[in-house]
Design goal:
alpha/beta, 506 residues, GMP Synthetase, Chain A, domain 3
Length: 506
Amino acid sequence: MDLCKMFNYSIERYSHKTAVVEGNRRYTYQELGLEVNAVASSLHRLGVNKGDRIAVLMKNRLEMVVLFWAIQKLGAIFAPINIRQTQEIVHYCLSDLEAKFVIYDNSSVYLINRKRFIERPLFINIDGNGGDINYQELVKQPAGVFQPNQINEDDLSVILYTSGTSGNPKGVPRSHQNEYAATFAHIFQCRYQWHDTTLGVMSLYHTMGLRSLISMMLLNGTFVILRDYDPYDAVQLIEQEKISVLYLFPNMFHDIAALPETKRYNFDYLHTIVYAGAPMSNNLIHLCQDVFQPRHFVNHYGSTEIYTFTFCDHVSEKPGSVGKPGIHQNIRIIEPDVHRAKSPDDTVQDGEIGEIIVHLGSPESFSGYWNKPDATKRSVKQNWYYTGDLGYKDADGDLFVVGRMDEMIIYAGENIYPLEVESVLFEHPKVKEVVVTGEPDERWGQVVIAHIVPSDSSLTANELDLFCKRHPKLSNFKRPRKYTFQSSFPKTTGGKILRKKLNTNF
């Protein structure tokens, strides 16, 4: 199934249902389809052909939704770029793509330096002047009859750039089949329903943002756009638009649930909440359960490369678990080796910690990084994707992730996984955020360092040390030997903490 066909079927099924909402603008499926056709026709006249990479730099907005589907209709490749990155990184992505068109709005114009292009792309400014053409000129042209090349499910649909914590981002090419299969799995695994309504606040340059959009279109649901994330605006839209499913980062759920006003709002239509991208603390799980009272509370574990690894649809019953493999997935846990010399057959016993690997036979899986064969070779062996994540299976076969291979701390020959220490420290009532890292030590090899964002300024290192000494689940050798206190942590644009910067920046 290609996405263009899927979109057309949705229009035919429920043409008068509301498809997209942004502020006072509300488009039915029929109205959205007409604007998509007009923009696709105009882009076709401008020379967009099958396989062309179209770079898109903007916040979530109705025009971006239209462009996504217009680009799919032409068989071109939608390549959204994170506009929260530096100009240097943005231009690296544009060069890596060899983008034929660059589409931007006023929020991202400062990121574009036209003098840096060897072969100049065509610039389209959504908001008005400054580009070779603007969005209104695309829309006002009548939708002419055009015959783009036939689209096959194996043709590329999008290229998404991984945020990464060091070095340049890697482009992840994903086919129409990848995106459709990932969306189908997401709907099934998260218990979505026909005509659901979601909050379109996750950026469309992120795999979670695209999953939210495509899921709603497949289900003839409604995608309610919020350009700039603000928890107060979000909670109002949840009530006003009768949002039924939420798919967000844990920090977003925290900000919404922790608002003093939140309990005054009506969440009766909200049946499912889903989080991904980072772990959720036990305290936050309980808070979300109390505030939203969802019928389904789901933890999705995956990546841009392979959308689903596993999912847990009973988060409240088993906090911390990422559950069992997705409907398309086969996973294994193998002996950890930083050199990745272990084969997919070197599996560990249940209960033992090892590296999580995922088979590439899934229809959700990419086939390799864009222009980076060496990176592909490092991550893929014998058709298995080596995630770099460490985890174990419990007696029920449910997976738990304990950290990253490159974050493992080796103290006097013993392996210490940061997450197990962090989970203990999170239980302290004065701890808001915590990250555990290793620091080189001449005698022990590495010692455990805990970086703390306190919720109460009276918190001390001695108080935390005593808490850890008395905790029944933390062995003494895993106890932090040093504490640092910070007001906040450096994070990627996707909300992940930059652990490697903690020991050097503070």
